[in-house]
Specification:
The complex is a heterodimer of chains A (about 425) and B (about 425).
Chain A lengths: L6 H4 L12 H25 L5 E4 L12 E3 L1 H21 L4 H23 L6 E2 H27 L7 H19 L1 H25 L4 H24 L3 H4 L8 E2 L9 H5 L1 E2 L1 H19 L1 H11 L1 H6 L4 H28 L10 H11 L4 H21 L10 H20 L18
Parallel strand pairs in A: 1-3
Antiparallel strand pairs in A: 1-2, 4-5
Helix pairs in contact in A: 2-3, 2-4, 3-4, 5-11, 5-14, 5-15, 5-16, 6-7, 6-8, 6-14, 6-15, 7-8, 7-14, 11-12, 11-14, 15-16, 16-17
Chain B lengths: L1 H4 L22 H11 L3 H23 L1 H7 L6 H23 L3 H4 L4 H30 L7 H18 L4 H30 L3 H19 L37 H18 L1 H11 L1 H6 L4 H27 L11 H11 L4 H24 L6 H14 L1 H8 L19
Helix pairs in contact in B: 3-5, 3-17, 3-18, 4-5, 5-16, 7-11, 7-14, 7-15, 7-16, 8-9, 8-10, 8-14, 8-15, 9-10, 9-14, 11-12, 11-14, 11-16, 12-14, 15-16, 15-17, 16-17
The chains are: A mainly alpha (about 425), B mainly alpha (about 425).
Chain lengths: ~425, ~425
């Protein structure tokens, strides 16, 4: 018997050498920033109608009334545009470090968004800022949960392209059991079914060494086919008895829910959203601070080394992949019993892929993925809010639809660049083979 | 077709599983035959994978069949009722798929060539875009790239080919050629974008191609609301019909939908096979796919290989898009890709990374697609069964170890899939 291994002995010291982005990329990014800045100042700043932009902050349920904010749009856009141009010039001359660039990128995004909203709000109608955030969070919830499922999987070295399928299966099970046995049974069923698909992923990836991207794609097709088949066979001609689960109403948290703006957005949501907060925090903390987290990262980065010090690589991978499936299943439950109240074929409609993009966009970290998923959610909400205001120039909703995807492409290409996945992500571990 | 022969087998059991485990001395023809059947030759694995998928599909059919469930309520009183109802449901479903995709025996007596060859024509029509798009995914796989973006490339191709098809008016042969070339250009543009991003910035192609799918979808939906691309009277999201001159000519008479695009698909299969196995570029491509570091050491420019591969990949998907809009549904709609983009991935996987294999996989899935129409029309079994079957087949194909385990095959060391396991980083 060897002495038990403590976590301290597992620590590998890395010396990280940060290489700045190449000259060309820096120039391209800098020019991009300046173009955005000039656009903000010159186009948004001048084409707005001469009325003031109005931002409303009231949303249903809040007890404290926040007065509508009203300000002149043109100067605001000039200032914002100038700031962005300055950031671009600084990047061209001195260059932000990659870490700083991420903050600058997010800041520029937020500023540009505000300027855009101000511009859109000059049409005379009030931009409902609070409900924009509220709706954005609602749209982001399944993406965040799906992304967390993906992170659990991938940090331990198994690629999860099957988030979409797990969500879809969870959505179906949630709707079916939610109707037959009540909403909470629906949630449990969604988690179990998601976990089962996770188990399938784990068995094929870990035991049968199937290429994991392929496997994920196939499992998605399987889930799509199965839920479609069962929908036609069970739900289509008896929708009242099998596909009518209703959905969770928002449950306002006392006190917290009364905080202006923040309250209605964060603390007047349904149980699944609250579960999402807990899951994100738990994963974020556990991944860095707990024994499980350290082992997960070790297995994802260097399974041989982890095995050498006595970690059961395969068992940990099984656990994490199934757990990830469960979380993705919960994401699916949100699609039916969290928000809509019924299942329809292909209800996830690619949101699992967006969640996957959020995982990669967020560099496999819970915080990063959370940010990316929120970005997608708010971009979706933006579109519906814009349909209520009367912007000076009508923007086609289909083109607006494309925005988050275009932004992702730019972000992946320009800001994130060569992302580094967990080193062993996607590589099956066969004991004694390496 | 093996989905026929195994149709009624509800339980997971095989002729082989009962016999003795190891035949020590195979002698004579029968022994050798048995030896082949017990090996894990790719062909055997494929057949067994299809068989296993059909068996699971049967279970699904039985479980969802109302008559069987009713009969199962009094199973102890009259067990044969349940079994016959189950048999009826299962055989009905698989027979319908067969009749919709290969041949409807009842049409033989009519002697009408159109009805006899109708199912085959439908199979060809469904298979053609699958073959093109499958080849596209296969080629990308061999270079170590995942093309999840065939959908977007098909949509772009449909926009280009459709626009040339309905707004230009050219002479007979010229028009279809120009329209197809426009489709190729559209697909190549879209995939090339992902290729350039991958080569120049390292943006992962799985992400960019997925995102480009959505962008293409938004673009086509936008265009279908723009006068000039949208057909009059502008109340439907649909484009004007493509000129007759721009349509692929019919292959089996004007009553059947099979068209020349299928011949182009055969030619494309041969061309991709040549490109992969015989050309210098194919060698570079495979080297990059197999081992980037080795390729770099050998002086191959990985980024230029990526870009060129993605251009060809997009061109192939573009052919799929043109086959849709210039062959079968001559008006551009936002669902013109008909799920081909994603099915192409499964087709390519079934084809095990070889162009010829992809061709036959495309034919099989085309047959299943054509059969699903008949399945919907003549039975109570939902047509999504076909999608489940496709996924199961590929799942079993991708895991030869599982098929070996179920059917107790010997391991012969060969029979590996051409697509090696790889992570995000490689």
């Amino acid at each position: 018997m060897s002495a038990p291994v403590t976590d301290e002995e597992l620590v590998v010291h890395h010396k990280t050498v940060r290489v700045g982005p190449s000259r060309t990329r820096r120039t391209v990014v800098a020019i991009g920033l300046m173009v955005i800045g000039l656009f903000t100042a010159l186009v948004l700043g001048t084409t707005g109608t001469q009325t003031d932009a109005k931002f409303g902050f009231d949303a249903g349920g809040a007890q404290v009334h926040v007065p509508t904010l009203s300000f002149a749009e043109a100067p605001f856009c000039f200032v914002v545009g100038a700031l962005i141009v300055l950031a671009g010039i600084y990047h061209l001359v001195r260059g932000f470090t990659p870490v700083a660039m991420r903050w600058v990128g997010s800041g520029v995004g937020v500023l540009f968004l505000l300027a855009f909203l101000a511009w859109a709000g000059t049409g005379g109608k009030t931009v409902q800022f609070t409900s924009l955030l509220q709706q954005g969070l609602l749209l982001a919830t399944p993406l965040v949960l799906g992304a967390m499922g993906g992170i659990l999987c991938e940090r331990s070295g198994v690629i999860n392209v099957a988030i979409e399928g797990q969500m879809l299966a969870g959505a179906f099970a949630g709707a079916l059991l939610g109707t037959v046995a009540g909403l909470f049974a629906g949630v449990i069923a969604a988690i179990v079914v998601g976990g089962l698909l996770g188990l399938l992923l784990a068995v094929f990836a870990i035991k049968f060494l199937v290429n994991q991207v392929i496997l994920g794609v196939v499992l998605n097709v399987l889930a799509l086919g199965l839920t479609g088949y069962l929908f036609d066979a069970i739900m289509a001609n008896n929708s009242n008895g099998t596909n009518n689960p209703s959905f969770f109403d928002p449950a306002k948290i006392p006190l917290l829910g009364d905080i202006p703006v923040v309250g209605p957005v964060l603390f007047d949501q349904n149980y699944i959203v609250y579960a999402m907060y807990v899951i994100v925090i738990v994963i974020d903390v556990a991944l860095i601070r707990t024994r499980w987290g350290l082992r997960t990262r070790a297995v994802g980065e260097h399974p041989q080394a982890a095995d050498t010090v006595g970690i059961n690589v395969l068992r940990l991978r099984y656990q994490n992949v199934v757990l990830g499936g469960c979380v993705a299943g919960l994401a699916g439950a949100f699609l039916t019993i969290g928000n809509v109240g019924s299942f329809s074929k292909n209800i996830s409609s690619g949101q699992g892929f967006i969640a996957l993009a959020a995982v990669i966009f967020g560099r496999w970290t819970p915080r990063g993925a959370l940010g990316a998923a929120l970005l997608f959610g708010f971009a979706g909400a933006l579109q519906s809010v814009l349909s209520f205001v009367n912007p000076p120039l009508q923007i086609n909703s289909n083109l607006l639809n494309m925005l988050p995807y275009v932004v992702t492409i730019f972000a992946v290409a320009g800001l994130v660049g060569r992302v580094r996945a967990p080193a062993a992500d996607g590589e099956p571990y066969v004991k004694g083979s390496a | 077709m093996s989905e026929q022969k195994a149709g009624g087998e509800p339980a997971v059991s095989t002729p082989e599983s009962g016999s003795s485990k190891v035949d020590q001395t195979p002698d004579g023809g029968a022994g050798r035959l048995r030896e082949i059947f017990r090996s894990d030759h790719p062909a055997i694995l494929t057949i067994l994978a299809i068989f296993a998928a059909v068996v699971i599909g049967s279970i699904l059919i039985i479980a969802s069949d109302q008559a069987t469930r009713t009969a199962a309520g009094y199973f102890t009183a009259a067990p044969m009722d349940t079994i016959s109802a189950a048999w009826h449901a299962v055989s009905g479903a698989y027979v319908a798929i067969f009749e919709g995709s290969i041949l409807n025996p009842s049409s033989l007596s009519s002697g009408n060539a159109t009805t006899i060859f109708g199912p085959i024509s439908e199979t060809i029509v469904s298979a053609t875009p699958l073959i093109f798009a499958g080849l596209s995914v296969t080629l990308a796989f061999r270079a170590g790239l995942f093309n999840i973006g065939a959908q977007g490339q098909i949509l772009l191709a449909a926009i280009f080919a459709g626009y040339v098809g309905f707004s230009w008016h050219l002479p007979v042969v010229l028009h279809v050629i120009v329209a197809v070339l426009a489709g190729i250009l559209g697909g190549a543009l879209w995939a090339g974008l992902a290729g350039v991003l991958k080569a120049k910035t390292g943006a992962h192609e799985v992400i960019t191609t997925i995102m480009l799918n959505y962008v293409a979808l938004g673009l086509i939906q936008y265009l279908l609301g723009v006068h000039g691309f949208q057909a009059k009277p502008y109340n439907q999201a649909i484009s004007p019909a493509v000129d007759h001159n721009a349509m692929y000519p019919h292959l089996l008479g004007s009553a059947l939908r099979a068209n020349v695009a299928f011949l182009v698909a055969i030619a494309a299969t041969v061309a991709v096979a040549w490109l992969l196995n015989r050309s210098t570029f194919g060698f570079r491509l495979r080297t990059v796919g197999a081992n980037q570091d080795a390729a770099r050491t050998a002086g191959i420019s990985i980024s230029s290989v990526y870009i060129v591969v993605m251009l060809i990949v997009g061109a192939l998907a573009g052919l799929a898009g043109s086959a849709q809009v210039l062959g079968t549904s001559p008006q551009v709609t936002s669902d013109i890709d008909a799920g081909v983009g994603f099915d192409a991935i499964t087709v390519s996987l079934l084809g095990r990374g070889s162009p010829i294999g992809t061709f036959w996989a495309g034919m099989l899935f085309g047959a299943l697609r054509a059969g699903s129409v008949q399945l919907l029309a003549s039975t109570n079994t939902p047509s999504d069964l076909v999608q489940v079957l496709q996924a199961l087949i590929v799942l079993f194909i991708a895991a030869p170890g599982l098929v070996r385990l179920i059917f107790r095959l010997r391991r012969s060391g060969g029979g590996q899939t051409a697509v090696v396991a790889k992570g995000w980083n490689g």
